[in-house]
Amino acid sequence: MTLPHPTADQISLPNVLAVLGDPTRLAIVRYLASKEGVPLNCSQFLDLGSKTNLSYHLAKLREAGVTRAEVVGTSRLITLRRDDLDRRFPGLLDSVIAAAVDDTALPVVGAHEIKIHA
Amino acid sequence: MTLPHPTADQISLPNVLAVLGDPTRLAIVRYLASKEGVPLNCSQFLDLGSKTNLSYHLAKLREAGVTRAEVVGTSRLITLRRDDLDRRFPGLLDSVIAAAVDDTALPVVGAHEIKIHA
DNA sequence: CCAATTGTTCAATAACTTTTGAACTAAGGA
DNA sequence: TCCTTAGTTCAAAAGTTATTGAACAATTGG
Predict the structure, then answer these.
(1) What region holds the HTH arsR-type domain (chains A, B) (predicted)?
(2) Domains of chain B by residue range
(3) Residue in A23, A26, A92 closest to B95 by CB
(4) DSSP A39
(5) How far apart are CA B19 and CA B13, in angstroms?
(6) In this structure, is the CB of residue A37 within 7 Å of any atom belonging to strand D?
(7) Ranges of H-type helices in chain B
(8) Which residues of A touch B89 (CB under 8 A)?
(9) B62: phi then psi, degrees, rounded to nearest 5
(10) DSSP one-letter code for B40
(11) What's the confidence (pLDDT) of residue A114?
């Protein structure tokens, strides 16, 4: 079982921008970028919305070619398609992520974590 | 008479991305970038849609902080807000424009121009 | 096998966006 | 002043996107 992904050359600029132009999805991408290398599953994003709603937003990101989802057991391991995005749109992902990191208006993944402070 | 523009710090990343995530508006931005320095008025974009429709798209771009419109007589002189965008989101506009330049699927301003070829 | 976990699909609804045409305003030139 | 040019506003229609809950499917652990 694999999920449908566009090929690198099917990734469309307006579509990528439109898909990133949503606070929930931008928060997902920002979190993926902050954990780059670590594949995350959908439940890690539950702070951002209901299970159903995340399924919807994660499908949008995948169908636009922003993320890759690998099926492993009952989980989907989600990663950024940095390689393909950098090839198609050099510098775009980095500048979006850098701007998103500074965006205090975006929802936060892990907002309920226990903070340990010195 | 002046038109409402957001201040630089009111420009929102998701909103800018959403507004750029439309082929007509991306074509407008691409054309503005290709003529940077030269202020253009709305009628120069009539290839991309009806007068009313352009008024709508140009208002979206202005309200998102992507463009600036200066009222001069009955015209609005439209320019990219490159200074503010570069300050708020370094590298973003350049990477979007570079990608848009390569995007053959976008509509073209001046598609009906007479081409002189050697 | 049974139950729990992980995530999808479906249909409904609500909310927004795009596009259109007709009517309008405001400035500039004859 | 009257006409033209440049662009806006408004309301309607069409289309799209986001959110929800209930039902479903597939895998894993006991």
Answers:
(1) 15-94
(2) 12-101
(3) A92
(4) -
(5) 10
(6) no
(7) 13-20, 23-34, 51-64, 82-88, 92-101
(8) 95, 98-99
(9) -65, -45
(10) B
(11) 55
Structure confidence at residue A92 as a pLDDT band (50, 70, 90): very high
Q: Are A3 and A69 within 8 A, CB to CB?
A: yes
B104: CB within 7 A of chain D nucleic strand: no
Chain A with chain B: Cβ pairs closer than 8 A: 85
Residue showing tokens 């959908």: A42
Structural tokens at position A58: 């994660």
Please tell me whether any atom of strand C lies within 7 Å of the Cβ of A52.
yes
Higher pLDDT residue, B47 or A114?
A: B47
What are the pLDDT digits (tens) for B1-51? 789 999 999 999 999 999 999 999 999 999 999 999 898 999 999 999 999
Nucleotides of chain D within 7 Å of a protein C-beta? 5-10, 17-23, 25-28
Mutual angle of helices A51-64 and A13-20, in 10-degree steps:
160
**Residue A76 CA, nucleotide D24 C1', distance (Å):** 18
Best residue in A95, A102, A106 for a mutation probing chain B (most B CBs within 10 Å): A95
Whole-prediction pTM value?
0.94
Tell me which CATH code domain B12-101 carries: 1.10.10.10
Choices 1.10.10.10, 1.10.600.10, 3.40.1390.20, 3.30.830.10: CATH for A10-101: 1.10.10.10
pLDDT band at A18 (very low <50, low <70, confident <90, very high): very high
Instruction: Kindly determine whether residue A26 and residue B14, on different chains, have CB atoms separated by under 8 Å.
Output: yes
d(CA B32, CA B82): 11
Q: Which tokens sit at B86?
A: 């570069």
